[in-house]
Amino acid sequence: MKMNFSTMLIAFTLTVLMVVSSVHCQTIETAPGTFAQDEPLDTLCFNPCSDKLGDKECKTICLNKAYKDGSCIGFGIPPTSKYCCCTK
Q: So which residues are the signal peptide here (predicted)?
């Protein structure tokens, strides 16, 4: 199946239009890693909990990051490791 020049030109033009429109329609909220500092995510989990980083320290860190609460939460089945998680 051969494509003549006009068919190939139409296919190329439609492809370019689709790419440009999809990039143009993206909003800032969908870009990865960008969010307003005043609006924290619903839940944020980070550092593994240890003897030095327990529930009290985790809660303090979360309050400093503008979250309402924080605690060490276990992950896995059964829970084998705990991480400091902040909640809105």
A: 1-25
d(CA 26, CA 57): 38
Q: What is the pLDDT of residues 14-33, one digit of tens each?
A: 887 777 666 555 554 444 54
Strand order in the sheet with 43-48: 43-48, 81-87, 69-75
What pTM was estimated for this model as a whole?
A: 0.51
- What is the CATH number for 55? 3.30.30.10
User: Please, are residues 85 and 40 in contact by the beta-carbon 8 Å criterion?
Assistant: no
In the chain, how many domains are there? Answer: 1
CB within 8 Å of 60: residues ≥ 6 apart: 70
